[in-house]
Design a protein that fits this description.
The structure holds two protein chains of two kinds. Chain A is built from eleven helices and ten strands. Chain A is of the alpha/beta class. Chain A has a six-stranded mixed sheet, sandwiched between helices. Chain A has a four-stranded mixed sheet with strand order 5-6-4-7. Chain B is an alpha+beta fold. Chain B has eight helices and six strands. Chain B is globular, with a radius of gyration of 17 Å. Classes of the chains: A alpha/beta, B alpha+beta.
Chain lengths: 334, 174
């Protein structure tokens, strides 16, 4: 274990993936019987959290006044018509939206549930992870940071498959570049020596040119890492909630304009249609966290509200809901 | 799951099936970290054909019904597990059952696809979740890569592997 103090502000996506990888390895080494016991537990948790019913139930507890008046009755769409012996509308509107509710004043409200899960992020992150891993593998064991002026180096990789035959040259050229930047550092004006230096021109270093967009050299005067000091930051810089917020932003914009919900009022006979975006176990388990120091779910909701900027598209109201046991929080964002 | 294995071993002893091996998600969990999966895929030999010439699971279902296990839409529920019986339908699966490895589980022993056969079968199957498992299995370093390459070469999967390697940037495993 490293003797360096854990600095959350410097935590990168790379660190998160490394932690996940180590956890996977540890779990994979468990005895088969123990693994199967975990599978059974996962089945139980998943069954309890599966489906729209528990999500909406929990949302209702967190935000009972979401319709600005009490809810008299509600059901998931499959049960709504059956339990009340009502004729469902023609397909596909017999399955939309996920929840149908009736308020105290008799208003019929439909609520569509969407998860704040970033499937693209998972795929993209895996791809990036692989590219970064291969580059770090090419660099190999990093020696102690013996530079005079460089605290650590952040690399930005091109989306290029790494050819293992380039590994030795890559290592050679990256250390040559570090040495060159370090030796030139003291020749920079004093004020400039405390700023990070970006190098993006690798014309003299063709292997770096092939795989890197740029390298950022952070001054040792600000922060110095002695181990794992050549690394990859998250795309947003130091670990930040940006990626998940971008997902939220993209999904909100996509959902509000989703043609499937156009005229849903008319087809299903609803007075209002709401969208409920929930952050659930899957998002928690498979995506980078949305929160950071001084940035929580409330801030994410404020951000979402700004993204919508008063335009709910085909929805009359939009809510953001934190559906993790013990952490339930809900906000109206439109 | 021990009860399921007991039932499978009893079926084998009673001659209802000649050979079986666990494939799919549960076999992957043997090599990888545990993840959620709902069913147990049991690949069986020999394949039994009914009167109409179609593959029949009737003898298996009849036998299990006598033991009190009813067939549902997708398989048979045995002690909380949905067990799906898959008659082997290609030479790769047949070989995977024939060469399955014995694994202890509690007081019982069962048969599992080897990591190499499992990976080849998942590669053949080719659904996104299968590819995710292939990637995890390759990265787990629990595979005998020459043996795996031999399997995919004998079962015509080299092209698919090549595509997979390129898609997931796995050059070092080529």
């Amino acid at each position: 274990m490293s003797s360096e103090t854990l600095d959350l502000s410097q935590m990168t996506v790379e660190d998160l993936f490394r932690a996940k990888k180590e956890r996977r390895k540890r779990l994979a080494s468990l005895p088969f019987e123990q693994k199967i016991a975990i599978v059974k537990k996962l089945q139980t948790v998943s069954a309890a959290m599966k489906g729209e019913k528990p999500i909406f139930e929990s949302f209702l507890k967190s935000y009972p006044d979401f319709a600005s008046e009490p809810i008299e009755e509600w059901d998931v769409v499959e049960d709504w018509y059956g339990k009340r012996a009502l004729d469902p509308p023609p397909h596909p509107f017999d399955k939309r939206p996920d929840i149908i509710a009736r308020t105290a004043s008799g208003k019929r409200i439909g609520i569509e549930l969407k998860s704040w899960v970033n499937r693209d992020q998972i795929t993209e992150a895996r791809k990036q992870e692989r590219i970064q891993e291969n580059i770090l593998k090419a660099i190999g064991d990093q020696p102690q940071n013996a530079t005079q002026h460089i605290g650590f180096v952040w690399l930005s990789a091109k989306e290029v498959r790494f050819d293992a035959r380039d590994a030795a040259h890559f290592r050679e050229q990256i250390f040559a570049l570090i040495e060159q930047v370090d030796s030139n550092w003291s020749q920079k004006p004093g004020w400039d020596q405390n700023l990070a230096e970006d190098v993006g021109d690798f014309a003299a270093l063709p292997i770096l040119e092939k795989y890197l967009n740029s390298a950022r050299f952070h001054p040792a005067s600000r922060n110095r890492f002695n181990i794992r000091w050549i690394r990859f930051p998250s795309p947003g810089g130091a670990y930040s909630p940006n990626e998940m917020l971008e997902t939220l932003s993209n999904s909100l914009v996509a959902h509000r304009g989703d043609e499937r919900y156009k005229d849903l009022h008319k087809h299903v006979g609803l007075d209002e249609v709401y969208l409920l975006v929930h952050y659930d176990f899957k998002a928690f388990a498979y995506n980078t966290p949305f929160d950071a120091p001084n940035f929580g779910f409330k801030q994410a909701a404020d951000f979402a509200s700004k993204v919508l900027s008063g335009d709910g598209g085909y929805f009359d109201r939009i809510f953001l809901f934190h559906f993790l046991w013990g952490k339930e929080e809900a906000y109206r964002i439109f | 799951m021990e009860k399921v294995i007991q039932v499978l071993n009893r079926m084998q002893a009673d001659g209802v099936i000649e050979k079986y091996a666990i494939g799919g998600g549960i076999a992957a969990i043997y090599y990888l970290e545990p993840y959620e999966t709902d069913d147990i895929d049991i690949f069986i030999l020999p394949v039994i054909f009914g009167q109409a010439g179609l593959v029949s699971l009737e003898p298996i279902y009849t036998y299990l019904k006598k033991l009190g296990y009813d067939a549902v839409k997708e398989g048979v529920v045995i002690e909380d597990w949905l067990v799906q019986f898959v008659p082997v339908f290609n030479p790769l699966q047949e070989e995977a059952v024939e060469q399955a490895q014995g694994v202890p589980f509690g007081e019982e022993h069962t048969s599992l696809f080897s990591a190499e056969h499992l990976t080849a079968e998942l590669l053949r199957s080719g659904r996104p979740q299968d590819y995710a498992r292939v990637l995890a299995l390759v990265e787990s370093e629990k595979m005998d890569m020459p043996a795996f390459r031999d399997i995919i070469s004998r079962h015509g999967l080299q092209e698919r592997w090549k595509e997979f390697v390129i898609r997931f940037d796995l050059e070092e495993y080529e």
